[in-house]
Amino acid sequence: MSSFINNLSSKLPTISTSIFAVMSQMAKDHNAINLSQGFPNFPVSKQMIELVSKAMRQGYNQYSPMQGIIELREAIAEKVSILYGINYNPETEITITAGATEAIYGIISAFVNQGDEVIIFAPAYDSYDPTIQINGGKSIEIELKAPNFKVDWQEVKNAINYKTKMIIINTPHNPTGTILSKKDMQSLEALVQDTNIIILSDEVYEHIIFDDQKHQSAVLYKGLAERSFVVASFGKTFHATGWKTGYCMAPKELMHEFRKIHQFIVFSTNHPVQKALSTYIKNPENYLSLPSFFQKKRDLFLEALKGSKFSVVPSKGTYFQLLGYESISEENDLDFAIRLTKEWKIASIPISVFYLNNMDIKVLRFCFSKNDETLLKAAEIINRIGK
Ligand code: PMP
Ligand code: GLN
Questions:
Q1: Quick one: which of 251, 273, 201, 197 has its CA closest to 231?
Q2: What is the number of structural domains in the chain?
Q3: Is the CB of 246 under 6 A from ligand 1?
Q4: Which tens digit of pLDDT belongs to each residue from 261-286?
Q5: What is the pLDDT of residues 85-128, one digit of tens each?
Q6: Ligand 1 neighbourhood includes 320 CB (under 6 angstroms)
Q7: Is 127 exposed, middle or buried (0-12, 13-18, 19+ CB in 10 A)?
Q8: Which residue puts its alpha carbon closest to atom 15 of ligand 1?
Q9: Domain that holds residue 309
Q10: Same structural domain for residues 40 and 165?
């Protein structure tokens, strides 16, 4: 190898290809049912397709404004005001992003400096830690303990010090399917009072919440909203993960800093999709129908899994269900997930990838954002494993 290649040094030496890319490819290669990466296998609404096509025909094919088109930002402000009774200024406090991933990258990059600490809750979504690292920060992991994955706020309090720049919360939570309660949010609010800590509240599953629970958005808590970025994803809400469109909201001083970064990551995002969303989002039925839509899927999947050897705590939100295999195999979760994909033709996500130390708790994550036929077929396979 040339010395040039030998002398290359990685900025992320411990990071490898995302598990979502790995497992989806493996599912394809082995012709397995893919319940690994989180995306629906049913179509987006015909109306949305029509609206995007119409926007393209009407000529919305050039750059959108850097912060996103004003119609969409206004429609988001209206939706947030209807849902939570809180007003965000669409001019200065809302930015349309290339999915939640770009928002997360931009928010962390705008504020985290060399040596800063960011508190994350593990198992944690896989983009947080690499983004913290690339900005010179350090992730401080608070472990959510199985099987209920509740936050120990005393532990969070003990972890906060003068280096703590940011706390990242995620409710409903990927990968555990748990949600933060009002009491959790109040505990966090009390902890950050009188600090300079910024909150990144990843709420991409705000509309995928079950059993009549109310989503506890950071916008509802004054002491949080004043220091929070709330991150959302239209990919999750409107079954269109491939359109990579989302947004973030924050008080204008924070948003001002975020936009400095956003403009140099993507400048602006997909224009015709924004145009379509600004119409589609105005009908509340398009998002208010989601809890019951996905609860039916969760219930169908869980009912079909009765009698399986996996252990289950029903998901309270997101479109993920954890299944424990402690009574089936001693294998580590990555090996087990790979074997299930190759031998049983069912792909899932091993939970160890969401811990900094790859802790193995013998749990796999299955995505139930699939049509009924796929879910029943998958359950039939899962029921045979370990018997
Ligand atoms: N945060 C969480 C918790 C997620 O599960 C995902 C995956 N959808 C994202 C952020 C990224 O969302 P997007 O696809 O809109 O970039
Ligand atoms: N958020 C999705 C998941 O958790 C995947 C996103 C991605 O592929 N990066 O499965």
A1: 201
A2: 2
A3: yes
A4: 999 999 999 999 999 999 999 999 99
A5: 999 999 999 999 999 999 999 999 999 999 999 999 999 999 99
A6: no
A7: middle
A8: 99
A9: 3-44+288-384
A10: no
